[in-house]
Write a structure and sequence with these properties.
Blueprint lengths: L21 H4 L15 E4 L4 E2 L4 E2 L7 E4 L3 E4 L3 E2 L4 E4 L4 E4 L4 E2 L4 E4 L2 E4 L4 E2 L4 E3 L16 E3 L4 E2 L4 E2 L4 E2 L4 E2 L4 E2 L8 E2 L25
Parallel strand pairs: 1-4, 2-5, 3-6, 4-7, 5-8, 6-9, 7-10, 8-11, 9-12, 10-13, 11-14, 12-15, 13-16, 14-17, 15-18, 16-19, 18-20
């Protein structure tokens, strides 16, 4: 639907409560996201989805929440436009109070993804606990992801299966996290490899020669 559909509880409730001051409830919320509360698009199992306190940012596309036989437990969290949450069969996705998911964040839980309180995930962050498909005939490999409290994850960072990030850690934009991160530590993006091309006598770059 063009404007999304409101969240409804199993007893027929309406959308998440409109506090009128998202910034007051979410001190980590950037100024540009402090807009009137929007709505989300929901699909799947409502019986095992808890999100009555969640708030949704205005704008398109509306946040999308999908529960395909897993469990979703959202505290008092903020989901900006374009956020996608997906709990697959048997997966558990839990997000603590005060956490902000900026535009385009995607969380995929096939085993378990747990995010603590007062975290901030920048735009287009991807967190997934699965490879989504096996390779060479082997089964899909799923390992839970655990993120502690007050963690900051920068734009377009990726956190992959089996990772635990400790309280207060900082993951800088563009990082790819494949190993555990201790509490209070910082993670930077992969370094760029820069190669110097041979230079001809006239000062021009030597034509590239690929190996045979």
């Amino acid at each position: 639907m063009k404007h999304g559909i409101p969240w409804q509880s199993p007893t027929g409730g309406a959308t998440a409560p409109d506090t009128g001051d998202a910034g007051g409830l979410f001190p980590l919320l950037p100024e540009e996201l402090r807009q009137p509360t929007g709505r989300c698009r929901f699909r799947g199992d409502r019986r095992h989805t808890e999100m009555a306190e969640a708030q949704f940012g205005a704008g398109q596309p509306a946040p999308r929440v999908q529960n395909e036989g897993g469990r979703l437990r959202l505290g008092r969290v903020f989901l900006a436009a374009g956020v996608r949450l997906w709990a697959h069969r048997g997966g558990v996705l839990t997000i603590g109070d005060g956490t902000v998911l900026d535009a385009g964040v995607e969380l995929i839980a096939w085993a378990g993804v747990t995010i603590g309180r007062d975290c901030y995930l920048g735009w287009d962050v991807l967190i997934m606990d699965t490879d989504l498909h096996g390779s060479q005939g082997r089964p899909v490999l799923n390992k839970p992801v655990v993120i502690g409290d007050a963690v900051r994850i920068g734009a377009r960072a990726m956190v992959l299966k089996g990772v635990t990030i400790g309280d207060g850690a900082v993951v800088h934009p563009g990082s790819i996290v494949t190993r555990d991160v201790p509490a209070g530590a910082e993670v930077g993006p992969p370094p760029t490899t820069i190669k110097t091309l041979p230079v001809c006598r006239d000062g021009t770059a030597h034509p590239r020669r690929d190996p045979p």
